[in-house]
Structure formats: C-alpha cells, structure tokens
Design goal:
single chain; Rossmann fold; 44% helix; globular
Length: 250
C-alpha cells in the first residue's frame, strides 16, 4: 500500500525512531505532523520535510486534543496515528518511588490513551491505523528496567482493548529490539548502568537484542514504516536486527 498522500500524526517525533519515521514517511509521499515537547527539534524536522510541527506534552489532556485538532485542520483528516513516545527510566524496582512510576505511566500509557481518544473519530472516518511502539524485552525485563517494562505491558494490554472496542480501526503493537541512537539512555545513571550491565551479559539478556545486535534508528523506523504501508492489518509484530552485523542501515 502506498503512503503517498496519507495524513500521519507522530506523537514523539523530536528525535529517535519517531523523527526518523517521520522523515521516511515524508520521503514516501505522506503528509506528516511532527509532535513533541521540544518545539525547536520538531520545527526543524517539519522544515526539512515540508511537514507540520505541533507542540504536545502528552501529560496534558488538552494538549493531546489540540495536537489532533491542528493536524486534522491542516491536513483535512487523519489516516495514521503513531505513538513512539516513551520514558525509559533505569531504576531497580525496590528503589522506584511514586515519581518514577507516575511519570512513566503518565507518558507511556495514559498519554497514549488520551491521544488515541482524541484521534479515534478521525481514524474511524478514514478506516485508519494507530501504531504504538513497545519493546522486545517486555516478556523478560532486564534488571533495572522493570518500571519501563511494566508500563509497556500495560500499553500492550490497552492496545488490545482498543482493538476489541473498535474493530473498524487497525491497532498495531510494534515491539522494537535494541536500537542505537534513540536518546533514551541519556538520563541513565552511568554507575548503575555499569553495575547492571555486568549482570545482563551472564544472564543472557544481551543476546535477546537480536541476531545481529542493536539496530540503527533508521532500521527500526523502517520496520515501523513497513507496518504503516502494509496491505494487511498488522496486529502485533516484533522487529529485531538482521543476522549480519554488517547489514545495510535501511
């Protein structure tokens, strides 16, 4: 299915997979709204692709409604919603307080629900798709990543709930393997990372990333783009790297 002329809203498009996906979708002929909190970065992405940039903090219900309204007003409708937004906190479960749990759930789950609710009438009108990014490690959370994994588990259950209630819209869960360059590790405590990484290897977690190791951001975004353009509805899929570590970036 061609994406040419498709109207796409990507919430969480200032960097990483979301931004790369927006660039690739625009190159395929889609009209793309880049939405995120960092207005300077989404403005740059929109300028580079001829798209739209709309500020959105997914923890604000009004902002979630506004980003959909502005996208529909500018594009004349909405065909695809993509939600790659996520907080990926590194913390042991025993050390995770209310702030860590609340911030993670507000961004990774509740924000997705609020944006989806706002976009739903337009997606139903177009027979569209809503695509959410999860992680391949959810079924076997890495030590130190339990809060993140719990939020993604909740997200995946919610996606199935949306699909059950609205069978006329395709709700897709895309589990992404380890990808370099997403920026999610920028806030990690380096000393804790060094400590936990000594455990990940012996327990076999590193090998769960995929046969070729971590993907590039462009590869991960390309896999999501394939879901957007699929001729069939993709309910759940896991993407990992190619067997060869020297595989092409796209």
């Amino acid at each position: 299915m061609t994406l040419s002329g498709s109207k796409i809203l990507i919430v969480g498009a200032s960097s990483g997979i979301g931004r790369s996906l927006g660039v690739q979708a625009a190159a395929a002929g889609a009209r793309v709204c880049f939405a995120a909190r960092r207005t300077d970065l989404i403005a740059q992405a929109a300028a580079e692709t001829g798209g739209l940039a709309v500020a959105c903090d997914v923890r604000d219900e009004r902002a979630c409604r506004t980003v959909v309204e502005k996208t529909v007003e500018e594009f004349g409708g909405l065909d695809i919603l993509v939600y790659p937004t996520a907080i990926d906190v590194m913390i042991r479960l025993a050390d995770a307080g209310q702030t860590a749990w609340t911030d993670t759930m507000a961004t990774n789950v509740i924000g997705a629900a609020l944006v989806t609710a706002a976009a739903l009438p337009h997606l139903r009108a177009s027979g569209g798709r809503a695509v959410y990014l999860s992680a391949s490690s959810i079924d076997r959370p890495l030590p130190g990543m339990g809060v993140y994994a719990a939020s993604k588990g909740a997200l995946e259950t919610m996606i199935r709930g949306w699909q059950a209630e609205h069978p006329d819209v395709a709700f897709s869960n895309v589990r992404v393997g380890s990808a370099l360059g997403t920026g999610v590790t920028d806030s990690w405590d380096r000393s804790l990372l060094m400590e936990l990484s000594q455990v990940w290897g012996p327990l076999g977690y590193v090998h769960d990333n995929g046969p070729g190791g971590p993907m590039t951001v462009e590869q991960a975004a390309g896999a999501v783009l394939d879901v957007l353009g699929s001729r069939v509805w993709v309910r759940e899929i896991t993407t990992v790297s190619l067997p060869s570590a020297e595989a092409s970036p796209m």
